[in-house]
Amino acid sequence: MDVQKLQKMQAASRTGGKNAPRRKQVRKPHTEADDQKIQAALKKINVQHVPGIDEVNMFKEDGNVIHFAKPIVHSAESANTTAVYGRAQNKELTELVPGILPQLGADSLANLRRLAEQYQQLTQAQQQQAVNKAKEDGNDDDVPDLVENFENGDENKNVD
């Protein structure tokens, strides 16, 4: 290649200096720096690790539950602050019912009763629809009467 062309290309591709284009800075939405800031803020209020917690459930007004399995929990009683770390899952209240009953408050129990009533009404309506459909079909489910005696079928055959 020509030396002059190389010098022109090199001059055109400069990355800094006067009148040079600026590069965009790309920020990731969640970085370790954010975690460090949160940890520093929690240290200021003297949070302590709370051992022995197997699960955390946060009840929403719409009847759903934010469920943390095996979370890390830090708490500061003086600041009335609790921090929960871990993988959160949004679940319906009915999915967690057997093990969650001791944790339910009065309003959550009312929601559970309402859901149970809706479920009963739904199942009763489905059963009624099945009965009505069977009545409309008529006697299709009946077994037809026997016309012949099948026990003596071998005797009636002609053997050649």
TrEMBL record:
CDD domains noted in UniProt: NAC_BTF3 (cd22055)
Localization: Cytoplasm; Nucleus
SMART domains, per database record: NAC
Any one of the GO BP annotations: protein transport
Region of interest (Disordered), residue spans: 1-34, 126-160
Pfam families: NAC
Keywords (A to Z) from UniProt: Cytoplasm, Nucleus, Protein transport, Repressor, Transcription, Transcription regulation, Transport
Predominant cellular place of this UniProt entry's protein: cytoplasm
GO CC, alphabetical: cytoplasm; nucleus
Every NAC-A/B domain range: 32-97
Assembly mode: Part of the nascent polypeptide-associated complex (NAC).
Homology family: Belongs to the NAC-beta family.
Protein name: Nascent polypeptide-associated complex subunit beta
Provenance organism: Wallemia ichthyophaga
